[in-house]
Amino acid sequence: MTAGSGGNDTKAKLHLASAYREIGPHLNRMGTRRSLDGEEIGQAAALRVLELKDATAIDDPLRYLFRVARNLFVDAERSRARERTKIDPAYDLETRADSAADPERVLAGKERLEQALAVISDLPPRCRLAFRLHRFEGLSYVAIAREMGISPSMVEKHIAEAMLRLVRAMGNDRG
Predict the structure, then answer these.
(1) Is it the case that residue 149 has pLDDT exceeding 60?
(2) Burial class (CB in 10 A: 0-12, 13-18, 19+), 167
(3) Helices (H), the chain
(4) Integer-rounded Cα radius of gyration of the chain
(5) DSSP label at 64?
(6) What is the spatial distance between Cα 172 and Cα 175, in angstroms, rounded to a whole number?
């Protein structure tokens, strides 16, 4: 590393420190909402950023710092959830029981799936094919366009039409 690049790196790190001062209050609010110490996570994020080998590679320090902090919040929340299940195994059972599908929900889900499949089967053939290739087989618009011999924008129109029909049909079901 040359002396000049070290100076640029120092400037970049000072810019990151300035970004930290700017987002500090937001991190504290995030922490309060999640029952976590926002200031502690903010400091950990700042430390991670300051430990970067090349801080000059960061185009938007404020956004980067927010992303690092957000990732640390998620990690901390996951860790807390794991700790809760270690301390109170009943917590995990209660959580699973609440989210488990009761017979009524299973039946309602099956009915909605059948309704969605009926809407898909009623789509025009080329629209249905584009939708199936994208949603069920995971092909990109470009790959579908090649396979169907149409433009990617036409694929986009077919998929948009299919989604519109699904949303209308499924939305009507909810009243």
Answers:
(1) yes
(2) exposed
(3) 3-33, 38-50, 61-87, 89-99, 103-121, 125-131, 141-148, 152-173
(4) 25
(5) H
(6) 5
Dihedral angle at the C-alpha atoms of 45, 46, 51, 57, nearest 10 degrees?
90
Sign of the C-alpha dihedral computed for residues 96, 98, 104 and 108 taken in this order: negative
Q: How far apart are CA 35 and CA 45, in angstroms?
A: 18
- For 19-53, the pLDDT digits (tens) are 666 666 666 555 544 445 666 777 777 777 777 77
pTM of the model: 0.42
**Residue 28: closest CA among 73, 61, 71:** 73
The whole-angstrom separation of Cα 65 and Cα 49 is 7
pLDDT tens-digit readout, 92-139: 555 555 555 678 888 888 888 899 899 999 999 999 999 999 988 889
d(C-alpha 6, C-alpha 93), whole Å: 54
Residue 128 token pair: 């249905």
Lookup result for tokens 């430990």: 51
Residue among 75, 70, 57 nearest 23 (CA): 70
**What is the C-alpha to C-alpha distance for residues 50 and 66, in angstroms, rounded to an integer?**
14
Question: Quick one: pLDDT band at residue 4, thresholds 50, 70, 90?
Answer: very low
